[in-house]
Write a structure and sequence with these properties.
Elements (H helix, E strand, L loop, with lengths): L1 H16 L26 E7 L3 E5 L3 H28 L2 H5 L15 H13 L2 H6 L9 H20 L18 H12 L8 H6 L14 H12 L7 E7 L10 E9 L6 E8 L3 E8 L7 E3 L3 E7 L6 E8 L2 E7 L2 E4 L1 E9 L2 E11 L2 E2 L16 E6 L8 H9 L4 H11 L5 E7 L4 E4 L9 H7 L2 H10 L3 E3 L26 E3 L3 E4 L29 H16 L4 H8 L5 H15 L5 E3 L5 E3 L1 H9 L11 H11 L4 H4 E3 L11 E3 L4 H16 L8 H4 L1 E4 L2 E4 L13 E6 L4 E9 L1 E6 L7 E6 L14 H7 L4 E2 L4 H5 L5 E6 L3
Parallel strand pairs: 2-5, 9-18
Antiparallel strand pairs: 1-2, 1-32, 3-4, 3-20, 4-28, 4-29, 5-6, 6-7, 7-8, 8-16, 9-10, 9-15, 10-11, 12-13, 13-14, 16-17, 17-19, 21-22, 23-24, 25-26, 27-28, 29-30, 30-31
Helix pairs in contact: 2-6, 2-7, 6-7, 9-13, 10-11, 16-17, 18-20
């Protein structure tokens, strides 16, 4: 009660500040802030902007909090938001044409038409409306629905009251008002991103077989390999690192958390930073995925949390046995069931509407592929239906809201258990009291190993062990997914089956399975669909465990130690093999290695460069670029050939190791890397940042960090453009970073960094300001408490509202 009263008093004091003359910061478009007082009856909110355009939104209830959030997001990201709303309405083809590629932010659809057919089908079927009506906790709470209503109103108010300056959509007819349903539909798209969202092209292309020969399938072995590539978090454009330390490792007995999500730098899966406050009810800082109404990753006065993309497989397939007389009828225990036919029409720019039929079953939609490498032909006897339990999940926002209001890691766990809304991420948290917490609490199809053993088809017997993708016999009722008593919906695992680890010196995840969350306390006993046990870890996981275990052993940790870890930029791959490569290289006869096509290449200079390289990927590291280009090629060599010492589950952090320099692919990789850099006019010992950079405001900003195969904590996936000077952009990587701890005050000790800055509008002053910080390995000091917000030298205050 004392805390609630204190927050209420602080909130009143803060709101009193809003009566002063103020204007919106330059980050917003012209015309904003001209009216500073609410009109009668409309939604409103107070927004205080501090350094780097970070908004601190204060409102009296959830609808008005949503209003302020929608307004402030639109001010920074109106074009990206509008593009996403166009996607979930199924209207991309209407404005951009049917054949153009999507940006893959909200699905894997290859073309606008495929995307529109799917999302228009979702809209026509009333899927999201039905989910909005489901009572909490199985459906969204009233508070979350109010934030959605408010967000739509805030977004609409901004586009109505302001002139858009971003060239990406200035004057565009497709920037239009939205509804709460559009906001909810965007959340739905994120929920199914790893399920139906992966199979959209196959869902929208699926048609009953004709007299023409059926499309070619793949062997079970080929399918297993394709599924493994498709579902590997390390091969995706989203990943993350996160670690929580408990009080036994810290200087003051309180917890610490370092979150380092790796997400796309462009488009609709960017993070956006803010603070949300309802005095006496809610006070949280962090980052939201664009279009989200609550904080996705963040901290409050007592708890900090982050997420990492998990290894749990969020979908499964059911292989249907069809009626020989009608391929749209399938058999279950010998009884005929007719597929449901959904006819969807999509408006197309400059052409007639396109109308297609989608086919649905008791298990989900029929699909004819999971990507080009995994075709699933619909023949006269067989079809495949995709089951995605997140297609009935609108609980992600409520789960995050529970985190935002948590006062301990126990409260974080309670929110996970009550709402069960996380589709494709793990949760890592720490609190003021010194607790650490990890949970792989995902909405997963309830595929037990026993069920897979009893019911897998020949295809499933190959794909399930390899990737966790189950293909079950859809002709048998006894092969249906069961239910757990503690599950919020049928057909998913309940919280009691989830991998959880609490109150260890450290809990860490870098997108491998839960097994080595703490290397001294491996997690086992979970089903294959969650991930693997006792299998090789990625180099990023191995390097992360080495680092955080060493930190925990050292003890007396502070937030500054987390900051150093984020930018240590140690390259585990370099530590593992660079010395061996340099020695082998120096012994090559004539200093020559043979490249692709049998071309001899003089690599003698590379030997010295690799020997002198400092094994880091700082922007001034010499030799890092050469090693990067070499290792990308060498790491493609099969592990059995690449390493002399194979993986040992009893020594998982140190194996495999000992590079086999006799493997032909190793010498070829070095020769090709040297030839590649010379052809691009790049010195072998050039500083990394000279050739790994982004251009902002006409200036090059050197970027440190490195690609997945190098094992870097500070992951950067740069875009290679030899003609442009090397790596001339970043597709994904470190995004919203936070290092959080506590001292004896009520204010958390927090440092944050949004690597790509708040706005994609090149005319915004917040288009590149935090990117410059990132390039210089500098941080933002979080202004969480009222006194810190009031002291900001860049403080700007505005009260935004609907016009009536």
């Amino acid at each position: 009660m004392r805390l609630r009263n204190r927050l209420r008093l602080l909130g009143v004091a803060g709101l009193a500040l809003f009566t002063v003359s103020a204007s919106l910061p330059p980050a917003t478009a012209s015309g904003a802030g001209q009216e500073r007082h609410p009109s009668g009856g409309g939604l409103s909110a107070a927004i205080r902007y501090t350094e780097y355009g970070i908004p601190h939104i204060v409102a009296k209830d959830y609808a008005q909090l949503g209003f302020g959030t929608g307004w402030a997001q639109a001010a920074d990201q109106v074009c990206t938001l509008a593009d996403g709303f166009l996607t979930v309405r199924g209207e991309r083809s209407r404005f951009f044409g049917p054949d153009a590629a999507t940006d893959f932010s909200l699905s894997s659809a290859a073309t606008n038409l495929s995307s529109d057919l799917y999302f228009r089908g979702v809209r026509d079927s009333g899927t999201v409306e039905k989910l909005l009506k489901v009572p909490a906790p199985a459906g969204p709470s009233r508070d979350v629905k109010e934030t959605m209503r408010g967000f739509a109103a805030g977004y609409n108010a901004w586009i109505t009251q302001n002139r858009i300056t971003d060239p990406a959509c200035r004057g565009a007819s497709w920037v239009r008002p939205v509804t709460a349903l559009d906001v909810a539909a965007r959340g739905y798209a994120l929920a199914v991103l790893g399920g139906q969202g992966r199979g959209i092209d196959g869902i929208t292309a699926a048609q009953p077989p004709t007299a023409a020969p059926p499309a070619a399938g793949v062997t079970p072995e080929e399918a297993a390999s394709a599924a493994k590539r498709l579902l590997s978090a390390q091969n995706a454009d989203m990943g993350s690192n996160a670690v929580a330390f408990d009080g036994s490792t810290t200087v003051n007995g309180r917890g610490l958390l370092l979150g380092n999500p790796h997400y796309p730098w462009q488009g609709g899966r960017r993070f956006w930073q803010s603070q949300q406050t309802i005095p006496g009810e809610l006070n949280v800082s962090g980052a939201s995925l664009l279009g989200a109404t609550t904080i996705s990753i963040g901290h409050n006065a007592d708890v900090a949390w982050s997420h990492t993309v998990a290894t749990g497989v969020t979908l499964n397939l059911h292989q249907l046995t069809l009626d020989p007389a009608d391929p749209t009828v399938y058999l279950v225990d010998g009884k005929r069931e007719r597929m449901t036919k959904r006819t969807v029409s999509v408006p197309v720019k400059g052409a007639a509407d396109v109308t297609r039929t989608q086919w649905w079953t008791r298990y989900g939609p029929v699909t004819t592929s999971m990507g080009a490498a995994l075709p699933l032909p619909w023949t006269a006897t067989t079809a495949y239906a995709l089951n995605d339990p997140n297609a009935t999940n609108l609980r992600m926002a409520d789960t995050g809201l529970g985190f935002s209001k948590a006062r301990s890691t126990k409260d974080v766990e309670r929110s996970l258990r009550r709402n069960q809304g996380m589709p494709w991420v793990n949760t890592i948290a720490a609190d003021r009291a010194g607790h650490s917490f990890f949970a792989q609490s995902q909405v997963l199809p309830r595929i037990t190993d026993d069920l897979a053993e009893r019911c897998s088809t020949p295809l499933g017997r190959a794909t399930y062990p390899a990737s966790g993708l189950a293909v079950l016999d859809g002709s048998r009722k006894d092969c249906a997914l069961g239910s757990d008593r503690d599950a919020v919906q049928p057909g998913i695992f309940g919280p009691g089956r989830m991998p959880v680890l609490k109150n260890r010196p450290y809990v860490e995840n870098s997108n491998d399975s839960a097994w080595l969350t703490n290397a001294d306390r491996p997690l086992t006993g979970y089903e294959r669909v969650f991930g693997t046990i006792a299998t090789p870890r990625s180099l990023r996981t191995r390097g992360a465990i080495e680092d955080v275990a060493s930190m925990a052993d050292k003890g007396r940790l502070r937030v500054a130690d987390l900051q150093r870890q984020q930018f240590a930029n140690r390259a585990p791959a370099g530590d593992l093999v660079a010395s061996e490569v340099a020695k082998w290289c120096a012994a090559l006869p004539g200093g020559t290695a043979v490249g692709t096509g049998g071309t001899p290449v003089d690599v003698s200079d590379a030997c010295t460069v690799l020997r002198r390289w400092d094994r880091s990927v700082d922007s001034d590291s010499r030799g890092a670029l050469l090693f990067d280009r070499f290792w990308r090629k060498a790491s493609a060599v099969p592990a059995a050939e690449l390493w002399k010492t194979p993986f040992d589950p009893a020594d998982p952090v140190r194996t495999p190791r000992d590079l086999n320099t006799a493997a032909p692919g190793v010498g070829r990789a070095l020769a090709d890397a040297v030839a590649e850099l010379r052809a691009a006019g790049i010195a072998l010992d050039a500083p990394l940042g000279k050739h790994q950079f982004v251009v902002r405001d006409g200036k090059r900003l050197p970027i440190g960090g490195g690609t997945e195969s190098l094992g870097i904590w500070n992951k950067t996936e740069p875009v290679w453009n030899a003609a442009g000077g090397g790596y001339t952009g970043v597709s994904s990587g470190s995004s919203y970073i936070q290092a959080v701890g506590w001292d004896d005050s009520r204010c958390p000790v927090a440092r944050t960094l949004l690597t790509y800055s708040q706005s994609e509008n090149p005319k915004s002053p917040h288009f590149s300001d935090q990117t410059r910080l990132y390039a210089g390995e500098r941080w933002v000091t979080s202004r969480f408490c009222e006194k810190d917000i009031a002291r900001s030298p860049d403080l700007r205050v505005v009260r935004v509202h609907e016009r009536r």
